[in-house]
Known about the structure:
The protein is α+β, with helices and mostly antiparallel strands. The chain contains four helices and five strands; from the N terminus they run αββαβαββα.
Amino acid sequence: PPRSTPLYSSAASDVYKRQGEVYIISNPAWKSWYKIGKAVDSEDRCNGYQTSSPHRDYSIVSKISVSNRGMGEKIAHSLAEGMSRERSNEWFRIENLEKEDFDKFLSLVKTLTEEKVNGGVSTNKKSAR
Length: 129
């Protein structure tokens, strides 16, 4: 898999903005490899990856907004560890999942993140089905 782009952060930027997105991106050059990351804006982050791809073929598989993107990313990485056959930094080799599965995965990440941010109290307003 490709190497991850370094994240530039400072204490000031973390205090300024914790909310953001947790995203999953892929590139057809690396079948079954998915990058799980965090950003203020995942579209902007994905566009940044395009500069290292001659085919400009990175795409966002799924993304969610969370109130604490750092925590959301940690939770996503922990969950992805159990689903992946292999890991290289923020890249996970996950086979046989479709977009709908990744959407459900990130929905769970959002629920767990918001519960942790709110001290264990669920803020999920969707009714149980």
